[in-house]
């Protein structure tokens, strides 16, 4: 009989996290025996809207209940609202509630959560830390976990973070999906980033790129195919950098081995590589790479992180490439009949009129047909904890950018989140 119930919200944008995390936990038979894991079809911070759902769960048979949150920065307002207005919601179902929170925002800035009703914070590389905490709670841990109390107590609930650096797991060693609950997401092939873009958490939190082995990736894809998983996506900060020692210069042999072996699995009907939810750095787009990967791919679109048409701004944010490399990548992708999506971020700290003009010039070239099969994926700068830009103000959209993006959108050449990120429209994550 399981001792405890673990509730977590399996909904966008946290599905990928829970697919990977549950795959890791399911490899531990002790945890699967002692805990009952329950994926919810909604976020935990929306639980008060689903009381009838919880009334169907037999809470009394468990010694305690764990609320496990994975949070992005955009979700903090609704999490805060739930904690303030409904902090005792689960106590009506069970007297012993333990709240655990993880995610990139939490790992970068745990002090932001000192005012909330939280028991434990899990740092990034959370698979190992979360599993060990679960062992500690049921007394089956073989290791002593060093902890330190950080400043601030929330309603008598101490918040702990490990005193030591989180243990780095071997990427790809564990199944990246939950076979038990059929929670599938993209297959993580690489973790970390060698660049330290001032706006991005990835390289500033883990700047060493680690790759899963081809052998392990193929093993998990084959296992997934046996339970009716017939299409595969990948998770990587730079798909074309898979296997690369520096994370940028492509390893042609690694790319070929990966894609050819997955392509040979009979049940796999689609391979999506270099597209959402991953992207490609422009300098990794070469003729040799495209010649290698194109025969295996089902996607006809490649997503490139361009961010700006201004070389000055690209240098300022430490992007590590030029806009000339972006344009070269566009032409190469055109040659191989790929459509191109370019990520652009507006309102960067320090953005000036000349930077805006460079963006406008490039967008006009798209309107004029100079660059074919190009679509802009729009974003507005948002300061993220754990980055050099964490204390900068939210980006402001220049009227001229709004105007030209409107023109591009009307002809299917632009789409994205720039308005919601700038606070001009409400989103599913806005406070009610």
UniProtKB/TrEMBL annotation:
One of its GO terms (molecular function) is iron-sulfur cluster binding. CDD domains: Radical_SAM. Residues 179-418 form the Radical SAM core domain. Keywords: Iron, Iron-sulfur, Metal-binding, S-adenosyl-L-methionine. Its cofactor is [4Fe-4S] cluster. InterPro entries: BchE-like, CHP04013_B12-bd/rSAM, Elp3/MiaA/NifB-like_rSAM, rSAM, rSAM_sf. It comes from the Archaea. NCBIfam families: B12_SAM_MJ_1487. This is TIGR04013 family B12-binding domain/radical SAM domain-containing protein. It comes from Promethearchaeum syntrophicum.
């Amino acid at each position: 009989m399981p001792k405890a119930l673990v509730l977590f919200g399996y909904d966008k944008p946290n599905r990928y996290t829970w697919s990977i995390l549950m795959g890791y936990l399911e490899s531990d038979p002790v945890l699967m025996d002692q805990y009952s894991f329950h994926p919810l079809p909604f976020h935990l911070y929306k639980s008060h809207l689903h009381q009838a759902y919880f009334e169907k769960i037999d809470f009394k048979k468990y010694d305690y209940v764990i609320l496990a949150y994975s949070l992005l920065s955009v979700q903090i307002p609704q999490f805060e609202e739930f904690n303030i207005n409904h902090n005792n919601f689960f106590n009506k179902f069970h007297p012993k509630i333990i709240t655990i929170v993880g995610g990139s925002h939490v790992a970068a800035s745990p002090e932001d959560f000192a005012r909330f009703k939280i028991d434990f914070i899990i740092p990034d590389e959370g698979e190992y830390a979360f599993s060990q905490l679960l062992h500690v709670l049921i007394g089956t841990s073989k290791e002593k976990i060093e902890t330190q109390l950080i400043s601030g107590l929330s309603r008598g609930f101490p918040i702990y973070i490990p005193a030591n650096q989180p243990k780095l797991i071997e990427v790809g060693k564990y199944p990246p999906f939950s076979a038990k609950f059929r929670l599938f997401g993209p297959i993580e092939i690489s973790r970390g980033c060698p660049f330290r873009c001032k706006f991005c958490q990835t390289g500033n939190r883990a700047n060493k790129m680690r790759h899963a082995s081809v052998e392990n990736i193929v093993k998990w894809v084959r296992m997934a195919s046996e339970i009716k998983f017939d299409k595969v996506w990948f998770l990587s900060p730079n798909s074309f950098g898979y296997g690369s020692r520096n994370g940028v210069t492509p390893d042609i042999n690694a790319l070929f081995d990966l894609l050819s072996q997955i392509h040979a699995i009979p049940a796999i009907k689609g391979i999506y590589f270099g597209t959402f939810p991953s992207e490609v750095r422009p300098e990794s787009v070469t003729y040799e790479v495209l010649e290698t990967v194109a025969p295996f791919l089902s996607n006809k679109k490649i997503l490139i992180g361009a961010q700006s048409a201004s070389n000055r701004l690209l240098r300022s944010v430490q992007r590590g490439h030029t806009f000339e490399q972006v344009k070269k990548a566009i032409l190469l992708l055109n040659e191989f009949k790929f459509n191109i999506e370019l990520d652009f971020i507006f309102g960067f700290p320090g953005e000036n009129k000349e930077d805006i003009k460079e963006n406008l010039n490039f967008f006009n070239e798209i309107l004029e047909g100079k660059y074919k099969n190009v679509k802009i994926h729009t974003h507005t700068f948002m300061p993220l904890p754990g980055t050099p830009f964490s204390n900068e103000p939210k980006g402001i959209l220049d009227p001229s950018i709004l105007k030209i993006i409107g023109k591009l959108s009307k002809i299917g050449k632009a789409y994205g989140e720039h308005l919601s990120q700038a606070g001009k429209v409400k989103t599913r994550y806005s406070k009610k």
